[in-house]
Amino acid sequence: NGAAVSRVRGSQPGQDSSRWHVVRKFLGLISSHNIPVYLIDPLILALVDKDIEQIRSSPDGPSPECKYFCAPRDFTTFALLDKTWKHEVGLFRTAEKMGFQWLKVINKDPRLDGMDDLSGMEIPLHYIFKLASHAIHLVVFYERSGNFLWHGPLRLKHHMDRKFVPFRKLHFGRYPGAFEKPELLLVSIDDLKVQIPKNPSSFLEEVSHSRFLECRYREARAFFQLYPDDTSLDAVEFRKKAKSLLHLATQTLNSLGVKFWLSSGTCLGWYRQCNVIPHSKDVDLGIFIRDYKADIIPAFQKAGLPLKHKFGKVEDSLELSFQGEDDVKLDIFFFYEEDDHIWNGGTQAKSGKKFKYLFPKFTLCWTEFVELKVHVPCETLQYVEANYGPEWKVPVKAWDWKSSPSNVQDNGVWPIDEWDNVIQIY
Amino acid sequence: MDEWKPNPAAKPHKKRSWYLAWKYKLMNQRALRKLCQTGAVLFLLVTVIVNIKLILDTRRAAYEEEEESAQDYDDEMLNVEVPRHPVNNKKVLDVEVYSSRSKVYVAVDGTTVLEDEAREQGRGIHVIVLNQATGHVMAKRVFDTYSPHEDEAMVLFLNMVARGRILIFTIKDEGSFHLKETAKNVLKSLGSQVAPFLSWRDMWTFVGKKGGEVYGEKHAKSPALSTWGDPVLLKTEVHLTSVEDAECHWPDTELNRRRKRFCSKVEGYGSVCSCKDPTPIEFNPDPLKNNKVFDVPVAVIAGNRPNYLYRMLRSLLSAQGVNPQMITVFIDGYYEEPMDVVELFGLSGIQHTPISIKNARVSQHYKASLTATFNLFPDAKFAVVLEEDLDISVDFFSFLSQSIHLLEEDESLYCISAWNDQGYEHTAEDPSLLYRVETMPGLGWVLRKSLYKDELEPKWPTPEKLWDWDMWMRMPEQRKGRECIIPDISRSYHFGIVGLNMNGYFHEAYFKKHKFNTVPNVQLKNVESLRKDNYETEIHRLLGEAEVLDHSKNPCEDSFVPDTEGRVYVMFIRMEQEADFTTWTQLAKCLHIWDLDVRGNHKGLWRLFRKKNHFLVVGVPASPYSSKKPSSVTPIYMEPPAKEEGAAAVPAVAAAEQT
């Protein structure tokens, strides 16, 4: 590869090829140990994305200049799927022989966190390989229930060298993250063969919204200590139905590309007990009204969920309800954003009364729930408290959606002439 | 993480202070002892409470901090590092060994490493092995040499201990009654002067280096048959050697580094720690062609029987088609030694804080292990479930690879099991033959994820229900009429003798003579015939071909079956309704197969081999196959045993149900 090196070096007097060299050495290291990594560096992928057509069409073509790997930056970030390698110690010995300094960040395995009192070995979450002034950040991805990939947060332990690299500049590790399993593409960029996500722009989009929240398993256990779980046959059956309804809804909305989150009782169930609340009787989802699509209703009908009722209209207080298997209902609330708050509406069918439920503004995070990757409000506590008040930790079986929520407001009455449109019951 | 630490303060040690020495001098003064005990109990209670509160507080504080510092890269949560005990540079260890009727203890450098004063327990010779370089405890055993054969186990153990290790012996209560010449000679060869003359109720302590010097020995003769020798307390010093001298000089490879770590910590595993030609810890069995179970996770359920686990993992890792990356060992409790075994083989292990007691504890451990398995391998559709006291057949994975598609496609199946309850040396013959049975044998089986996630996990018995997980799984509410596929010749072998529901007699009677396949690459016969409907066709074909045996003869007699080979015979027994197993149980008893409850049946039909002939038993009229009975044949009826015998059998049944 010497010829390529000198050519790259020679052709790029302005660019710094030292980063390119570090990347090349690193790729050599991992390929000598048969470890499949792929590039996830946002900076480089953004550059790659601009030329993606050309790169795709000539996967082996020589590059005239060092366009990507010489770009100024402190790190280059790669991903490693945990299950594709065997944690050989040999890798690190070779790395050292090649002049790399390396650092490993390990922590608890979140896949065992939900379990009563299991303690496994800690798992590697991040590796950093440093050579001279450049560093490679290797993020370890794990498969989680719900058919997605997860990476952990990067937390330094006490004895670790805080100045090993400027950690705050890392692109991954501030929070844990959730990603789809990417399709990969082997390309040659700057004369280096490397795997990249097949669609860099959608991957980059994912990066910006990847923050993951772990369920609060410890608190959930404490909750069940206070209020033992209902394991009656009815409860088991309801949970099973709610789970399959949620799976169906997720599949349907994902295929439409409509973003949604767990709302109301379903969100409370996740936050408080990491499970479906057995006496809740329905599944609740939230959708921003700006993400509304007219084909939501036909899509659910096609999936075997007939529309049960439709209250409100797109401009105001829209709410859809679909009939799942045996009395389990899917409620979809549409949320309207104002300057300082977000709200959704409610309608009482017999009186035409309107209600408004106010929430503080929130952003969305990924979580794992009943073997699904779904969104929840990142600021979950505020969301749940707005809805259920400070006593949300205490289970309530008698719940009236018109009076029980602590964030409910009267919002007038629908004009009679609109009733046919805004109150539709099937 | 990977470097070897010579002296981690591994075992939780209790500090032995001057006060204990003083306490032993005052042993016989009752009132004072009582006072001391009460004081100690109170002190303990207070300490426990204070500690629990402290733990809770730290946990809460730590968690709050974690939430707040989520934005930061500092791991505040884990910065409460346990301060390491300074490595002891002293070259001499003080050793105290105490032997008496009701209590033994061993203290090393003021730290108690053994203390046993439980009543009616721990009788015999206690042996402790110390590392000669670090002084830490590598093995602790007790051999009840008052009882037969325990001295043989002790000899076996002592022979496995590496040369140079420090051995400490002490007798509690009685240790000589069944201490035979061979054992005494071994002790003598270790340098004991007293061992050859040890007799009834003598007290004895001994400290020596294997193959080297003696550090001390004390003995107190029992003056009369009815009394014990006086307590003896041996205080001595042991000179430590350098770490290099205590270790073997294996070539520096990743495997040998694991071996080194293991061998410097624990003893009693024989040739795996031999300096010369140690036994391998990596096996590289032949891969399987078209292996359908390569990506199926394997959960090994273990307790604190590290020697069993060692044997089990060896056989598992030697089976063709094994994928070590899919194996997780789940250890019920914070036991170190099983974890050491797991790490020796480079596998991953998970410890489980024990909840509940006995059977319920096992049951909760199973649940946690199964849930964790499907969390760790979210793509898996199945899991293989194994236990630490099983040998795994060389073609275990090949057997599963050939049959697993049935479990995926046939909804009427509950599991695939490697174990045939009725597959004894004299009743199993054909390694390529499979059966469908209405019972769930366990002992090496495959669980479908959907069955676990949708049905079993949500209603798994809670800890306060003291149920056995396997008995629960066999209940009709769970099994719902589904069946398991089993081989005629088992692909696992149950070698455990010590266990929750196990003892030597029980094992001898019901497990020892079980047949175990040792033939590699067995091609299973006609796997498709195991599907629900196909199987009925197959049974009808078999019954059509079967010769009806002479029902006037005694079915327990060998002559009941002609001296042929490779034939198919059928007999009919009386079975009034589906749950009437009166005659079957008697027949099972006289055939010396599993008779403690009903196993291996399929619609009132049992299939086994007698004298190398396929032997079918049909229960008439309950079985749908009753129509195959010629009208001239009267089904055989066998009397249940007389009342008192029945009563005697009850405890045995209770024991069996928990197996």
TrEMBL record, chain A:
Membrane topology of this protein: Single-pass membrane protein
Gene Ontology biological process terms, A to Z: glycoprotein metabolic process
Protein location: Membrane
Keywords: Membrane, Transmembrane, Transmembrane helix
Domain of life the protein comes from: Eukaryota
Ranges of residues in domain LicD/FKTN/FKRP nucleotidyltransferase: 256-294
Domain Ribitol-5-phosphate transferase FKTN N-terminal: 1-243
Main localization, broad class: membrane
Pfam (any one): FKTN_N
One Gene Ontology CC term in the entry: Golgi membrane
Similarity remark: Belongs to the LicD transferase family.
Protein name (record): Ribitol-5-phosphate transferase
Protein's gene: Fktn
TrEMBL record, chain B:
Membrane topology note: Single-pass type II membrane protein
Catalytic activity: 3-O-(alpha-D-mannosyl)-L-threonyl-[protein] + UDP-N-acetyl-alpha-D-glucosamine = 3-O-(N-acetyl-beta-D-glucosaminyl-(1->2)-alpha-D-mannosyl)-L-threonyl-[protein] + UDP + H(+)
Main location: Golgi
Keyword field contains Membrane: yes
Cofactor requirements of the protein: Mn(2+)
Residues in coiled coil: none
Domain of life (superkingdom): Eukaryota
Cofactor binding summary note: The manganese ion interacts primarily with the substrate UDP-N-acetylglucosamine.
EC class (word): transferase
Entry's Gene Ontology cellular component terms: Golgi membrane
Pathway(s) served: Protein modification; protein glycosylation
UniProt EC number: 2.4.1.-
Keywords: Disulfide bond, Glycosyltransferase, Golgi apparatus, Lectin, Manganese, Membrane, Metal-binding, Phosphoprotein, Signal-anchor, Transferase, Transmembrane, Transmembrane helix
Residue stretches making up the ILEI/PANDER domain: 123-212
GO molecular function annotation: beta-1,3-galactosyl-O-glycosyl-glycoprotein beta-1,3-N-acetylglucosaminyltransferase activity; carbohydrate binding; manganese ion binding
Transmembrane keyword on record: yes
GO BP term, pick one: protein O-linked glycosylation via N-acetyl-galactosamine
PANTHER family: PROTEIN O-LINKED-MANNOSE BETA-1,2-N-ACETYLGLUCOSAMINYLTRANSFERASE 1 (PTHR46396:SF1)
Quaternary structure, from the entry: Interacts with DAG1 (via O-linked mannose moiety). Interacts (via transmembrane domain) with FKTN; the interaction is direct and is required for normal location in Golgi membranes.
Family: Belongs to the glycosyltransferase 13 family.
Domain comment as written in the entry: The stem domain mediates specific interaction with beta-linked N-acetylglucosamine moieties of O-glycosylated proteins. It also interacts with its product, N-acetyl-beta-D-glucosaminyl-(1->2)-O-alpha-D-mannosylprotein.
Function according to Swiss-Prot or TrEMBL: Participates in O-mannosyl glycosylation by catalyzing the addition of N-acetylglucosamine to O-linked mannose on glycoproteins. Catalyzes the synthesis of the GlcNAc(beta1-2)Man(alpha1-)O-Ser/Thr moiety on alpha-dystroglycan and other O-mannosylated proteins, providing the necessary basis for the addition of further carbohydrate moieties. Is specific for alpha linked terminal mannose.
Protein name: Protein O-linked-mannose beta-1,2-N-acetylglucosaminyltransferase
